[in-house]
Structures are given as C-alpha cells and as structure tokens.
Write a structure and sequence with these properties.
The protein has 190 residues and is α/β, with parallel strands linked by helices. It contains eight helices and five strands; from the N terminus they run ααββααβαβααβα. It has a five-stranded mixed sheet, with helices on both faces. A hairpin with a 5-residue loop joins strand 1 and strand 2 (62-67). Helix 2 runs parallel beside helix 8 (168-180). It is globular. 38% of the residues are buried. It binds zinc ion (ZN). Zinc ion binds next to helix 5.
Length: 190
C-alpha cells in the first residue's frame, strides 16, 4: 500500500493529448460543446459522465480539460471541475487565477455539485458556465449535495458571472444515456 505522503492522479491519454495541444475555441457555444463531448468520451472510456475546462475568456484558449476520475482513481474529490482546476493551476503555477493576470472561466458539462461549487471562488475564475442542470444530474441518479437556493447570486456577489442553459439538452442526454446504459452511479453511502 502506498504511503499516504504524496498524492498524484493520472488523466486518460486522450485528455493528456488534448491538454498538450493548443486548443483555442473563441466561441462560447463551442467551448460548451467541447466539454460535453469530453463528458461523453469519458463515460465511453470507463469514467464518469462529467467534464470541465478552464478557458481564457477573451481568447477561448484552453488552459486545461478535466474529466471525472472518481472511480478510476478511487478518489471522491476528482470531479471534472476539480481536475480541471488542479491541472490548470499546475500548468499556470498559480493557486489563485485572480493573481495570474488572466481572465479565466470554468466551463462545466453539468452544474457544479456542492464541493465543486465551493472550489469556484477559491480558484479565482471570473466566470462559471454550466450546461446540464443540478436537476438533470439528480434525474440521472447523481447526488449533487446541498447548495443554497441563492448560489448564483452568492457567486455574482463575489464578482463571478454565472451562465447556464447553454447546451443543456445535449449535456443532460449524456447523463441520461449513462444511467440508461447501466453504468455505475456513485454517491456517498448514507
Ligand atoms: Zn463536483
């Protein structure tokens, strides 16, 4: 058993390849479609049906794509958003994007769960974009945890813009397909 002194995780090769290439998606709809496609590809390759990307808002340059690695890496915090933020921060060498001088955003295939929502302000992103809704995730059987009813306003009060409902139907279809295909739905045991 490894000593619990260090932590590392690995993304699938196709994610590593994407993160090693210089992807620029100037159009926001294209960024959303890109993460939705990644969520389906991750589900197809044994991961959870979630993906997220950190992009530079003005140019559309991808800083890092993350996918859900909870089951494959046996770690409950490795949601797509967390993986994207960790990889982007490692790439930029900054724990707070707000200090990086870049205007960055988090584009997620699904509205963040309670944990990922909590990470958004700490990350320093200035905008959150999500496709499928919390209700879509719950309809597929995933537990999103508790977020206050005014979660959007709470982010906006911190200067973080929130954009929803772009690509929602496509992202929700990925979640529904995952459920209908009988894949593992992992939630905390109560
Ligand atoms: Zn999450």
């Amino acid at each position: 058993m490894p000593r619990p002194a260090d932590f590392s995780f690995s993304v699938p090769d196709w994610v590593a390849d994407i993160n090693a290439s210089n992807i620029v998606l100037p159009d926001l709809d294209a960024r959303v479609a890109f993460v939705i496609e990644a969520s389906q590809r991750n589900a197809n390759s044994g991961g959870g049906p979630f993906a997220a990307g950190v992009f530079e808002t003005g140019s559309g340059r991808l800083i890092a794509l993350g996918v859900n690695l909870v089951v494959v890496e046996k770690c409950c915090v490795l949601h797509g958003e967390m993986v994207a933020l960790m990889l982007a921060q490692r790439r930029l060498g900054a724990y707070d994007f707000g200090r990086s001088g870049l205007d960055l955003e988090l584009v997620s295939s699904t509205e963040p769960c309670a944990m990922c929502y909590g990470a958004v302000p700490w990350s320093g992103v200035k905008r959150l974009i999500c496709a499928a809704s919390d209700a879509d995730a719950r309809a597929a059987g995933f537990d999103e945890g508790h977020k206050a009813a005014d979660w959007r306003q709470a982010l906006e009060q911190r200067g973080i813009a929130v954009v929803t409902d772009i690509g929602r139907a496509q992202a929700a279809a990925v979640l529904a397909k995952y459920r209908d295909d009988g894949h593992e739905i992992y939630n905390g045991k109560r």
